[in-house]
Design goal:
The chain is built from 3 helices and 8 strands; from the N terminus they run H-E-E-H-E-E-E-E-E-E-H. Strand 3 and strand 4 form a beta hairpin. The protein has one domain: Barwin-like endoglucanases (Beta Barrel), CATH 2.40.40.20. The chain is an alpha+beta fold. The strands form 2 sheets. A 6-stranded mixed β-barrel has the order 1-5-2-4-3-8. It is globular, with a radius of gyration of 17 Å. It starts with a helix and ends with a helix.
Length: 163
């Protein structure tokens, strides 16, 4: 392990221009413990598994609190609801674990309930000793959505959370 540590280069950890944000995927929140297979109505708080983002970063990308935006990494892309949070450091984003499961709506259509954060994790971006993916440090970029894509996600959220 000491040989591996000697080869680490801090410059390689710098943000790439095309992925300027760091996503901490898998955050623990009030309503995401062992509920993976529960009815989405169980989540009284944060039903969509919103991405926490510093308000200054949200303003920099021209988005609003509560807006649907895309989070893209070299491995994939997911659409999330964003939530401005002053406690989140500039350049850092946070998404919860335990969301993204397919769940039937009242009319029997299966919809994804929240972000599938593992879609953003690169298999090769992992600890070289244990092979554990670096899901707490995922380089991503944020993309505003066209109005029709944002509307489709809003409608899906309403359908899955309909009482």
């Amino acid at each position: 392990m000491l040989e591996w540590l000697d080869r680490l280069d801090p410059a390689e950890a710098d943000a790439a221009d095309d992925y300027p944000f760091v996503l901490a995927a898998g955050q623990r929140r009030m309503f995401n413990a062992n509920q993976i297979f529960r009815d989405p109505a169980w989540r009284r708080d944060d039903p969509d598994g919103a991405m926490l983002i510093n308000p200054a970063d949200l303003a920099r990308i021209g988005a609003s609190d509560g807006e649907w935006i895309a989070v893209a990494s070299p491995a994939g892309r997911v659409v999330v609801r964003c939530k401005a949070d002053d406690s989140v450091r500039d350049g850092l984003l946070a998404l919860p674990h335990g969301y993204g499961q397919s769940y039937p709506t009242r009319d029997g259509v299966r919809l994804s309930n929240g972000p599938r954060v593992n879609m953003l994790t690169e298999r090769g971006n992992c600890d070289p000793v244990a092979g554990t993916p670096y899901h707490k440090h995922v380089r991503v970029r944020l993309e505003r959505l066209p109005a029709d894509e944002a509307a489709a996600h809003e409608e899906a959220s309403r359908r899955i959370h309909a009482a």
